[in-house]
Amino acid sequence: MTLRKLSVAIERWPIAGSFVISRGARTEATVVVATIEDGDDVGRGECVPYARYGETVEGVVETIRTQSFAIAGGIDRVGMQAALPPGAARNALDCALWDLEAKKSGISVTERLGMAAPKPLTTAYTLSLGTPDSMEAAARAAADRPLLKVKLGGAGDDARIAAVRRGAPTARLIVDANEAWAPEEFVSLMRACANARVELIEQPLPVGADDLLRDTERLVPVCADESLHSAEDCVALADRYDAVNIKLDKTGGLSEALGVLAAARANGLAVMVGCMVGTSLAMAPAVLLAQQADFVDLDGPLLLARDREPGLDYRGSLVSPPTPALWG
Asked: Class of the 121-319 domain?
């Protein structure tokens, strides 16, 4: 009997241009890949450490490595849920274990979950934060995409969203403020979004400062992102938010994400399945989860200068389910 072997690697993928949100700009995506070998079978999972949640690339790598003996000893996904808290490290390991199970058994993750055959999905395409003029130009360049996700940053967002609407008059719009709105500007900026026919606003207020949402008319549905990490959060957020953004790097993998989705539905919340900026390996398990989503935001590879091979098949904004050669 061979022992399973765990390895971990840091990869850097250049971003096409730059990716700008309210917290800053990046020109490359740094991802961590966990690989579990069991004889001739190999499972992989990708995660993106995020400083907003106190994560570093080095810290996530070290956390993954602490599980080497557990992996060699045959720990399963349930055991991994108990061994590590939600976050990027557990995501990489959880997804690698799902992939390994599929490779060893010949039974796809879709079949294991009892899902119908997955279908191609329309993903949002992200426009970075910038000046109104630059964002209008970016919107014009992407105006043929059916769903645009607009990064906002606080003061001046009324002009930014109006400019995007001018640039893409027929596209559906969602916006993501990444906690950047001040309470005193919330009503006016939400009104500006309503005027621009925005369908959803992600995390406008900082985590812990969102009680305002409970008592203020929401002209546009509001989605929790940074405020949501676990299934338990869905209960606490239901009186303030209309939707939640489920990301595998926050939940700690597909296993927990499935529970979060069920909890969201049970509490009357709409669901977005989102991502960090990563490669197709990170998006692949999320595409399966997103089969049940109201909004899909899995455009990470579209923001890169190049993607891994084989990757997901993107045709414009339509993303197809993963092939076994990639994941699952």
From this structure: alpha beta
